[in-house]
């Protein structure tokens, strides 16, 4: 969905997010714009403060650019680019470049392993809107989810092993922390929570298969905003309950590090755990621009 490349883009990011009908499902566009502007006004300074704590920008921007470069190096027969929903490069910019290059077939690869209307559908709907606006009619192949892919699971396992770096897993509680969603969106039929839970079950089986035994393995949800009911349990409540244990957090559903991982998990939750007596708090990085992730993407494209 994107992330600001400097503090000046934080407001752009928030305004575009909260005018998205898939994020703020208010049918009347004027009312949605009004409510969205109120949310932005309330959250802007705090959001800027959070981004300052991680270098004044989202790490997503640099990692995504680097990932595309790596894909290009690994397979120069194709052109690799990326589009973001709420910050540059916007979808229309990326598609216009492809149109100018005369590209007649596009593979749309979702950066979200689990499907949700708030992310996957929102992004692909914007692609189709922009294609129509540009009168651009390439052949489209879509990779919209891969939560059940064995290579995806193996890459997650490898990331967990690297984070442990030789430490005994039996001394740790492993927490898979996924982005939460309002309960109302899930009740309306969004498959996201179900796909997160299935991913969690796949990973528990893979851990057991590889004899990687943890003190406990838990699934939680983070990043709730507002007063409405969101799916849980919350990552914060899980950390509060187990703060005195050695903890390893894995950002389930995130493929590129962003403010939710770099700030919320690695700073906020780390500080919370430490304040409650935690002595060992590990965080697995996302796949980012790793060779394993680049190879995984190429493998999925090759299957289409």
Automatic annotation (TrEMBL):
Which CDD domains does the UniProt record give?
Answer: Ferrochelatase_C, Ferrochelatase_N
Q: What is its EC number?
A: 4.98.1.1
Q: Which family does it belong to?
A: Belongs to the ferrochelatase family.
Primary localisation category: cytoplasm
HAMAP family for the chain = Ferrochelatase
Q: Which keywords are on file for this protein?
A: Cytoplasm, Heme biosynthesis, Iron, Lyase, Metal-binding, Porphyrin biosynthesis
Binding-site positions, Fe(2+) = 179, 260
Give the protein's function: Catalyzes the ferrous insertion into protoporphyrin IX.
Its name, as the record gives it, is Ferrochelatase
Question: Which residue windows are transmembrane per the record?
Answer: none
Task: Tell me the classification of the organism that encodes this protein.
Answer: Bacteria, Pseudomonadati, Campylobacterota, Epsilonproteobacteria, Campylobacterales
Pfam families documented for this protein: Ferrochelatase (PF00762)
Q: Which GO terms describe its biological process?
A: heme biosynthetic process
Q: In which pathway does it act?
A: Porphyrin-containing compound metabolism; protoheme biosynthesis; protoheme from protoporphyrin-IX: step 1/1
Gene Ontology CC annotation, any one: cytoplasm
**Which GO MF terms does the UniProt record name?**
ferrochelatase activity; metal ion binding
Where does this protein reside within or beyond the cell?
Cytoplasm
Q: Does the keyword Iron apply?
A: yes
What's its catalytic activity? heme b + 2 H(+) = protoporphyrin IX + Fe(2+); Fe-coproporphyrin III + 2 H(+) = coproporphyrin III + Fe(2+)
Please tell me which top-level EC class this enzyme sits in: lyase
This protein's record includes keyword Transferase:
no
């Amino acid at each position: 969905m994107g992330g600001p490349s400097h503090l000046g883009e934080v407001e752009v990011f928030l305004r575009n997010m909260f005018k998205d009908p898939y994020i703020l499902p208010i049918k009347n566009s004027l009312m949605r714009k009004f409510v969205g502007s109120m949310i932005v006004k309330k959250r802007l300074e705090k959001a800027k403060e959070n981004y300052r704590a991680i270098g004044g920008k989202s790490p997503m921007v640099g990692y995504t650019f680097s990932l595309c470069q790596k894909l290009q190096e690994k397979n120069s027969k194709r052109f690799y680019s990326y589009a973001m929903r709420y910050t540059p490069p916007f979808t229309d910019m990326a598609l216009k470049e492809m149109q100018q290059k005369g590209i007649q077939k596009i593979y749309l690869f979702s950066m979200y392993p689990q499907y949700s209307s708030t992310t996957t559908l929102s992004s692909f709907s914007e692609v189709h809107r922009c294609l129509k606006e540009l009168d651009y009619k390439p052949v489209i192949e879509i990779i919209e989810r891969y939560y059940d892919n064995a290579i995806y699971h193996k890459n997650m396992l490898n990331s967990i092993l690297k984070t442990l770096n030789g430490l005994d897993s039996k001394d740790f509680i492993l927490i898979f922390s996924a982005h939460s969603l309002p309960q109302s969106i899930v009740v309306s039929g969004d498959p996201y929570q179900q796909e997160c839970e299935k991913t969690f079950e796949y990973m528990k089986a893979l851990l057991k298969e590889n004899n990687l035994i943890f003190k406990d393995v838990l699934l939680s949800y983070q990043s709730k905003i507002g007063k409405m009911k969101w799916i849980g349990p919350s990552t914060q409540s899980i950390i509060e309950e187990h703060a005195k244990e050695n903890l390893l957090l894995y950002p389930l559903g995130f493929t590129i590090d962003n403010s939710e991982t770099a700030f919320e998990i690695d700073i906020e939750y780390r500080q919370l755990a430490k304040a409650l007596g935690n002595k060992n708090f590990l965080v697995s990085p996302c796949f980012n621009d790793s060779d394993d992730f680049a190879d995984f993407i190429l493998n999925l494209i090759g299957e289409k």
